[in-house]
Design goal:
Length: 81
């Protein structure tokens, strides 16, 4: 579970970082500090959240697709069925 959590945090930070770097680069190039920095950082945040949600959904479907034989393995000797 920790691996999934770190993956989501990394995706969010990557989205923020890429948006901020591109925004800062455009601002320096066009001389419009901090217009593009703010806008693209917010867009990077939105993209990071969307990616996190997609990863969570992907993990959830993998988790639900796992076999549900855990009840049969926990002390059930086949009696009473």
């Amino acid at each position: 579970m920790a691996q999934v959590g770190w993956r989501m945090v990394t995706e969010l930070v990557a989205g923020l970082g890429v948006g901020a770097m591109i925004g800062y680069g455009l601002d320096v190039w066009l001389g419009t500090l901090p217009l593009f920095l703010v806008v693209l950082t917010l867009l990077g945040f939105v993209a990071g959240v969307k990616t996190m949600l997609r990863s969570a959904r992907e993990f959830e479907t993998k988790d639900n697709a796992a076999p549900q034989d855990a009840d049969a393995d926990q002390g059930d000797n086949g009696r009473g069925r």
